[in-house]
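Long-time lurker, first post. I've been practising inverse folding by hand and with some scripts of my own, and I keep getting stuck on stretches where the structure tokens seem ambiguous. Below is the full token string for one chain I'm working on. Before anyone asks, I'm not after the true native sequence, just a reasonable design that respects the backbone. If someone could post their per-position residues I'd love to compare against what I wrote down in my notebook.
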């Protein structure tokens, strides 16, 4: 082993060309291991899953480092199948009974609706990878949490150490702080077993890490924060000059039902109606309206309702076009769901732009902790139209007047959040641990 390259198996249901939010973290992780001298094999879902259900960004596949092997495991998603020709008679004539039966089947092998049936194919694929080339470390990222099963089976049958990388959380509802699953229930028991065996456990922010450390103090020393960060290659260029009217405010990301877009729209209408620095301003939404490839009708209706106020939906933006998209922005809109534990990878990319950032979210969000010292950050204390309008007006004024020194300070602030810097300490520690064990 001292002379051979160590082999890491990375497990992520969503991997390029998936356009899901977690795909950028997945990319950064595998590329970081590759740069550190590891051979990397990825287990992910088949390409057709993303093309059919969640949407794809083909440009992402070019970002995977050369030499990384991607093994695609077929994934079936009956609940998302809209082809009536493939439906059973039970689903056609008794949809409620079919749904109830589907939920039971989904959770038979693993307690996760939609994803549970993937456990067995995923475990078989992991064991086959290990048979072909022994795995020295498994890194599994969630959600879905079924990804952890590949790590568990290799650890149980071959003693392969593993890392659990939480992009969100399993038991914790990051929006309201409650539990997503029953205390002492099946999900809780499986998670506790996995945490007991994990070499490291990663979380995206300190509030989520702290919650888990308090819940599982015996494992706290193995819990680490690996923030999402931004990708320097594709991050926006820092804007060091003031903008000119009319201003463009931009949002890039996925708008889910948790995102207070209606509250933002009301505040935007109020602020824009007052003229001044916002006279003729536009608010552009880039990304996806909902989690699936077809935009949410309700969100499309919202955009249409506020079209006369300069609110537009511009559609998805490929990763390769993100940098160019920021060039048209004069300020960034950070609209997030409420919750002490909520953050977003977009926070760091926004900061790299050195543009004013308007936070339209609960001030207790973890994003507040990240942006508190950002020189051009404009947060809100509540989601009332007047409060949001005031933040938008202050950001508009800053966009027109902030000088080069202030913007340079914004760019300097962002540098600490480059995604590769977030990954390096953990990858180095794991490399040392695996190499040391091999030499023992």
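-- Answer (accepted) --
I ran through it position by position. Result:
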């Amino acid at each position: 082993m001292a002379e051979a390259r160590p082999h890491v198996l990375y497990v992520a249901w969503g991997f390029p060309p998936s356009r899901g939010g977690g795909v950028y973290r997945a990319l950064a992780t595998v590329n970081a291991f590759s740069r550190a001298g590891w051979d990397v094999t990825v287990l992910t879902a088949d390409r057709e899953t993303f093309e059919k259900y969640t949407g794809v960004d083909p440009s992402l596949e070019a970002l995977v480092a050369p030499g990384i092997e991607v093994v695609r495991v077929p994934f079936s998603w009956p609940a998302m199948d809209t082809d009536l020709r493939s439906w059973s008679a039970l689903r056609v004539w008794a949809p409620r009974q079919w749904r109830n039966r589907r939920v039971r089947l989904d959770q038979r092998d693993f307690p996760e609706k939609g994803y549970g049936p993937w456990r067995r194919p995923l475990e078989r694929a992991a064991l086959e990878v290990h048979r072909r080339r022994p795995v020295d470390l498994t890194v599994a990222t969630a959600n879905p949490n079924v990804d952890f099963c590949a790590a568990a089976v290799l650890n149980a049958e071959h003693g392969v150490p593993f890392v659990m990388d939480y992009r969100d959380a399993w038991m914790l509802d990051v929006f309201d702080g409650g539990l997503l699953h029953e205390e002492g229930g099946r999900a809780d028991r499986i998670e506790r077993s996995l945490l007991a065996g994990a070499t490291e456990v990663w979380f995206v922010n300190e509030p989520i890490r702290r919650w888990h450390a308090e819940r599982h103090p015996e494992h706290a020393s193995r819990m680490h924060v690996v923030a999402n960060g931004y990708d320097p290659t594709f991050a926006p260029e820092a804007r060091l000059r003031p903008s000119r009217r009319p201003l463009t405010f931009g949002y890039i990301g996925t708008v889910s039902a948790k995102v207070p877009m209606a509250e933002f729209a009301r505040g935007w209408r109020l602020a824009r109606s007052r003229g001044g620095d916002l006279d003729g301003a536009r608010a552009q939404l880039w990304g996806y309206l909902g989690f699936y490839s077809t935009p949410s009708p309700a969100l499309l209706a919202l955009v249409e309702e506020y079209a006369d106020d300069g609110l537009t939906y511009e559609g998805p933006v490929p990763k390769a076009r993100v940098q160019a998209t920021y060039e048209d922005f004069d300020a960034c809109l950070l609209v997030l769901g409420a919750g002490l534990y909520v953050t977003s990878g977009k926070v760091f990319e926004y900061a790299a732009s050195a543009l004013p950032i308007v936070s339209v979210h609960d001030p207790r969000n973890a994003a507040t902790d990240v942006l508190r010292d950002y020189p051009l950050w404009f947060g809100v204390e509540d989601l009332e139209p007047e409060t949001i309008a005031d933040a938008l007006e202050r950001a508009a004024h800053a966009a027109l007047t902030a000088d080069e020194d202030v913007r340079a300070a914004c760019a300097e602030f962002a540098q600490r959040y480059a995604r590769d810097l977030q990954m390096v300490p953990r990858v180095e520690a794991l490399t040392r641990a695996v190499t040391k064990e091999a030499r023992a």
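A couple of notes from the structure itself: The chain has two domains: 7-81+115-228+419-439, 248-415. The CA atoms of residues 342 and 356 lie 21 Å apart. Happy to go over any region you disagree with.
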